Amino acid sequence: MKIYLKTFGCRVNQAETQSLRERISAAGHEICRRFEEADAAVINGCAVTAGADKDCARLLRLIARRNPGCRIIATGCYASVSPQSVLENAPRAEIIPNHRKQDIPSEFFGAEKAPGFGWRASSHHGRSRAFVKIQDGCSGGCKYCIVPLARPHVSSKPVEEALSEIAALAENGYGEIVLSGINIGCYRCPHTGARLENLLGGIWRAGGDFRVRLSSIEPRDVSDGLVAAALAGGDRFCGHFHIPLQSGADTALRAMGRNYDCAFYLSVLEKIKKAWPAAGIYSDVIAGYPQESAADFSAGHEFISEAGFAGLHVFRYSPRPGTAAAALKPLDPRTTFARAEKLRALDKQLRRAFAAALVGSTQLVTVETCKNGAACGITGSFVNVALDGNPGSPLARVKILSASEGRCRGVVI
């Protein structure tokens, strides 16, 4: 059979789809690039924003219309929280919620059942960085977020399984491993109770010619132990942290149900900067939350401007049915749009300044291939670098020559 796979959303979804791809291929099926020629399509959807919903729905409609004989398997967060919407767009779709997703290869395509945690990959299709899923699920109380409804089952990959998967990926030539999860700060080995810092220690002891990057981590999970374990990795740990803020105003944070205030968040940033003065610290920010006043936005903008971020991911608030915030009266869309644009302008400013500060330094870069075929890469602090020449290896030492619009140019040394 020809199978079409499509992923929307986060690194966890991407890691899951790669695992599905390998197991379906191992069962003798061909993975195809166009849904029009597929016998079956597996759509791993996202529901974090209204835009993500629309993207998933659009693809489902296209497949149903253009390939009426295709068996459609809808999974992921969109299918888990909006099954009726899936069926409205693709009436013949079969819905597999997140907690049953790992059974898709065995249930539909004759593959063997996945052992243990169930998510493992030996490569990462089309990428030079590999995402390793070490944790799933969230039980947080953020009032705007649909993820605890979409992925309520909290679980973690055993340390021995994670180390084995990482070793295989490194042997297959991946110079960077991204530890990914819905809430990786909640990582707990089911066998030993080991935490994220213990897993990092195990990675350093195992050795290997690769480096490790953390995906998004919550402020309260950046412990002294985690910082010490990351530092122990030296160059093998990427000096990059993505720590969601959501708002730089305490009143808005309380309204959102976040479990910290700005003073605590700032203490986390100071802890990291003391350990890595040149660390790249990025954050998520929501523009236009229903209870965000003009004063909240102004205070938040000022806080973000002065906190020392390397960049932002800005989201315009959109209500998610099933969340507490969905019952609140939304702000005028024009207000939300204007606030998002102002934050995006700040993001550009922050990225330009951070990239410019790298000029003249030497950086360890994960090498990738850009769309135009030229070599490019990513620094440990998550800045894109265009490379003069091709180093021919997954990791390279690069002298940064110039910076423009938040990106750098460098030469391999």
Key features?
413 residues; alpha/beta; Rossmann fold
Task: Describe the model.
The chain is of the alpha/beta class. Among the domains are: 2-109, Rossmann fold (3-Layer(aba) Sandwich); 362-412. It is 36% helix and 23% strand. The protein has helices at residues 11-26, 50-66, 76-81, 83-89, 104-109, 147-150, 159-171, 196-206, 224-232, 250-256, 262-275, 294-307, 333-356; strands at 2-7, 30-32, 40-45, 71-75, 94-96, 129-136, 155-156, 176-181, 211-214, 240-242, 280-287, 311-316, 362-369, 375-379, 384-388, 395-404, 407-412. The N and C termini lie far apart (47 Å). The mean pLDDT is 95.
Report a brief summary of the structure.
The protein has 413 residues and is of the alpha/beta class. 36% of the residues lie in helices and 23% in strands. Among the domains are: 2-109, 3-Layer(aba) Sandwich (Rossmann fold); 362-412.
Task: Give a topology summary.
Elements: E1 2-7, H1 11-26, E2 30-32, E3 40-45, H2 50-66, E4 71-75, H3 76-81, H4 83-89, E5 94-96, H5 104-109, E6 129-136, H6 147-150, E7 155-156, H7 159-171, E8 176-181, H8 196-206, E9 211-214, H9 224-232, E10 240-242, H10 250-256, H11 262-275, E11 280-287, H12 294-307, E12 311-316, H13 333-356, E13 362-369, E14 375-379, E15 384-388, E16 395-404, E17 407-412
Parallel strand pairs: 1-2, 1-3, 3-4, 4-5, 6-8, 8-9, 10-11, 11-12, 15-17
Antiparallel strand pairs: 6-7, 13-14, 13-16, 14-15, 16-17
Helix pairs in contact: 7-8, 8-9
